[in-house]
Write a structure and sequence with these properties.
Elements lengths: L1 H22 L5 H7 L10 H8 L5 H24 L12 H17 L2 H34 L2 E2 L1 H7 L6 H12 L1 H12 L1 H12 L3 H4 L7 H18 L5 H4 L31 E2 L12 H12 L5 H20 L5 H23 L3 H23 L1 H6 L1 H26 L17
Antiparallel strand pairs: 1-2
Helix pairs in contact: 1-6, 2-6, 3-5, 3-6, 4-5, 5-6, 6-12, 7-17, 8-15, 9-15, 10-14, 12-14, 12-16, 14-15, 14-16, 16-17, 16-19, 17-19
């Protein structure tokens, strides 16, 4: 019943987003998915979805699936070349992975029964969800741009004085650092989904042998964050400093729509904020920072892995935070909200898996209250936050730290207790 309800809800959301996207003259996630079965696919995690599906397969089956996907792509590539079909860069491969996933879905329905059918369908569904999540995210971003003609960047930028305008500082530091750090941060920022896939594959490495999925894993939280985050975008539309206060020295940003050309060279003056109109193209995808949220849950889910995975998770979190600020994609307060949002969703997913005990309910409710309070403060108290930077900045950090502490304290209670050493049975004393 749970999987059925979730499937119906997801299908309903996808259909609604498809209709809205078509209303604005763009193909939705369903159209993109169907088109990707034959025509040149758009860049996306198609082979990542295939890898995720393969956790339910044996190694011979995985090799067969990968070989079939690559062979299909090779055949389609030759057909396009023979027909002189022009495709954009990065759209050469991917059809094969999608077709193989769909093929295994057909095999599950027609050739499997009982638990084996359910397991294979879960694997196929997980792989397709990864692909559909990317497509659905694109639809959401289009909707935010088309339905929110004004943005609240002036409010967030004013509130960001409480943290010392870290995006301005990080932007200047990155310019001074040169091209190598810029390239590294760009790769980290762009390949966040790859890092998540690596962690997920590590967590799900025993599924084929145990014939079941673990109760909780990274993919669940990753997808839920991507589902809920755009709803906050709609409530709190923000485009980011490089767009609202660019182009600056970066040469990018909202040239015609920016409030001023300040980022990252000129510190932002404190002035009364107002909603500002912006174009119908740039996504309003800053509040909260979902890159920060996703990097946070990657960090959390690598804590029980080997040392290499733990170090990689730490590096990815730090580099992602630096990239979001230094490229001007986010304000500092976006990152604070992103951390609180991530830990609240992660706590909710873990509490759901455990059965919603009292500590779980308390933690999720507290995280939701803190997150709401942050949004209210950014919108209605930005001038007070800017005028009293020491106090408001300390309160922001304290609020985020309290959620982090609550999450660590609660999840430690949920961890399996160490097996107590068996106490020796009392022996009769010798007479």
């Amino acid at each position: 019943m749970l999987w059925g309800t979730a499937g119906v809800a997801a299908l309903g959301l996808v259909v609604v987003l498809e209709l809205i996207a078509r209303h604005y003259g763009q193909p939705g996630s369903v159209s993109d998915q169907l088109r990707g079965a034959v025509f040149a696919p758009k860049p996306g995690p198609l082979y990542g979805g295939l890898a995720l599906m393969s956790v339910v397969l044996t190694w011979p089956q995985r090799i067969l699936a990968a070989g079939a996907a690559i062979a299909t792509d090779a055949v389609l590539l030759l057909v396009r070349w023979a027909a002189d079909v022009k495709v954009s860069d990065g759209q050469f491969f991917g059809n094969g992975a999608l077709l193989v996933m769909l093929g295994y879905g057909v095999i599950a329905v027609t050739r499997r029964t009982g638990p084996e059918r359910a397991l294979l369908l879960k694997g196929v569904g997980l792989g397709l969800l990864l692909v559909a999540g990317r497509k659905t995210g694109d639809s959401w971003l289009l909707i935010t741009a088309k339905t929110r003609p004004t943005v609240l960047d002036q409010y967030v930028a004013t509130a960001d004085h409480a943290l010392g305008n870290p995006s301005w500082l990080a932007g200047r530091l990155l310019q001074a650092a040169g091209p190598v750090p810029t390239h590294v941060l760009d790769v980290v920022y762009a390949k966040l989904a790859v890092a998540a896939l690596v962690v997920a594959l590590y967590q799900l490495r025993h599924v084929a042998a145990e014939r079941r999925f673990p109760g909780h894993h990274l993919v669940r939280t990753f997808l839920v964050i991507g589902l809920l985050g755009p709803a906050v975008y709609m409530l709190f539309p923000v485009v980011g400093p490089v767009f609202a206060y660019g182009p600056g020295a970066s040469g990018t940003g909202g040239v015609h729509w920016a409030a001023a050309d300040l980022w990252p060279d000129t510190p932002l003056p404190i002035s009364t904020p107002h909603p500002m109109p912006y174009d119908g193209i740039t996504p309003r995808n800053c509040m909260p920072s979902l890159h920060t949220a996703w990097a946070t849950v990657i960090f959390v889910h690598t804590r029980r892995g080997p040392l290499v995975l733990r170090c990689a998770g730490t590096f990815w979190l730090i580099a992602t935070l630096g990239a979001t600020l230094a490229f001007g994609y986010h304000y500092g307060v976006d990152l604070v909200a992103g951390v609180v949002f991530a830990l609240t969703v992660e706590a909710a997913m873990r509490a759901f898996d455990r059965g919603w005990d009292r500590p779980g309910i308390r933690l999720v409710a507290y995280g939701a209250v803190v997150f709401t309070a942050l949004l209210v403060a950014y919108r209605w108290l930005p001038m007070e936050m800017a005028r009293h930077q020491e106090v408001s900045g300390s309160l922001l950090v304290l609020a985020m730290t309290s959620v982090v502490y609550g999450y660590v304290r609660t999840t430690r209670l949920w961890d399996p207790a160490a097996v107590a050493a068996r106490r020796p049975e009392p022996q009769p004393e010798p007479v």
